[in-house]
Amino acid sequence: MKTNTTTNNNATMAAAMKAAGLSDAQIRIAIAALSSKGGGKSVPKECKCGCGEMTKGGTYRPGHDAKHMSAVLKAARVGVTAVA
C-alpha cells in the first residue's frame, strides 16, 4: 500500500512539473532527488559532454569524458588557428 501511495505522489508531482514546463529529463531528475532517502543513491543528471543523455549520477556517460576532451581540444586548436 505504501508503494502505491509513493507512485501516486510521484505521478502527481510529475504532472505538476510538466504543467510548469519542465522537460521529461528535468522531471526524472527532480523526482529522483525528492524520492532519494540519501542512502548513497546517485541522482541521474545530464552528461556534461553535451550529448543530452542521462548519467547514472556521475558527470559523464562511460567514454564521454574522452569525447568531451577531444571536442574541447579541437575547439581550442580551431580558436588558435583562427587567431593566428
Describe, in plain words, how this protein is organized in 3D.
- There is one protein chain.
- By secondary structure, the chain is mainly α.
- It folds into 2 domains: 1-42, no CATH class; 45-84, no CATH class.
- The chain has 3 helices and no strands.
- The protein has helices at residues 2-19, 24-35, 64-83.
- Helix 1 packs antiparallel against helix 2 (24-35).
- The radius of gyration is 18 Å and the shape is elongated.
- The mean pLDDT is 75.
**Tell me, what's the shape?**
elongated
The class by helix and strand makeup works out as mainly alpha
Largest sheet: none
Q: What is Rg?
A: 18 Å
Low-confidence stretches: none
Mean pLDDT: 75
Question: How much helix, percentage-wise, in residues?
Answer: 55-70%
Number of structural units classed as domains:
2
H/E element order: HHH
User: What is the end-to-end distance?
Assistant: 68 Å
Strand content: under 5%
Give the oligomer, counting copies of the same chain as homo and different chains as hetero.
single chain
Q: Strand tally, please?
A: 0
Number of separate helices:
3
Attribute tags:
single chain; 84 residues; mainly alpha; 2 domains; 3 helices; 60% helix; elongated
Which helices and strands appear, and what pairs or packs with what?
Layout: H1 2-19, H2 24-35, H3 64-83
Helix pairs in contact: 1-2
Q: Summed up, what is this model?
A:
The chain is mainly α. It is built from three helices and no strands. α1 packs antiparallel against α2.
